[in-house]
Amino acid sequence: MSAQLLLVDDEPGLREAVQAYLEDSGFTVDVASNAREGWDKLQKHTPELVISDIMMPQVDGYQFLKQMREDARFKALPVVFLTARGMKSDRILGYQAGCDAYLPKPFDPDELVAIVKNLLERRAATSQAPGTGTDLEDIARQIAQIRGMLQQGSGIVQTPSPIRIDLTPREQSVLDLVAQGLMNKEIARRLETSVRNVEKYVSRLFSKTGTNSRTELVRYALEHGLTH
User: Fold this and answer.
1) N or C: which terminal CB in the chain sees fewer CB atoms within 10 Å?
2) Are residues 8 and 114 in the same domain?
3) Number of structural domains in the chain
């Protein structure tokens, strides 16, 4: 299984050993020596799963996880806690904070690999089910990433549309709300219309822009100045 992981741990020896074992197991692993560096790495590239220590200086694992869960881009991102803390109360606190798995040190690296594979498989299965919360959160995360890249001038350059696109006022309103990460039900409520009508407008937008998904539509709209 090939997947991009982010490992955050302030112990160099453990960080290097875990990175090496995960890479030997077929994963691509980016590393950070503390939560702040980990957060910076998340801004540049979103991994498919985060493995984080809890006991770290300045910003601990709980604070790091809270920061992730409060950001739409990382709300559904699987997180595994690695920690020397093995007390039941600490594990409960970790799960309450929103971690997906909790592995106290010392641990068997094969167990970590099994946990990572299981979480990635579960996430893939969930995201394929239409209308799930994870699916919607993933779309919102991708749209937020696209906006961030545009604002930073990284990877997306705004240019005129290669084809002339004339949008009706209602199509423009729907496009603007899609670009904000809103789903059809929310857009219908905002525009005081039916979900079926919103679906028709979104379908027209796909047709006019030659896109096939909401994230492609938003990227196209942002790249070509069709929305802000």
Assistant:
1) C
2) yes
3) 2
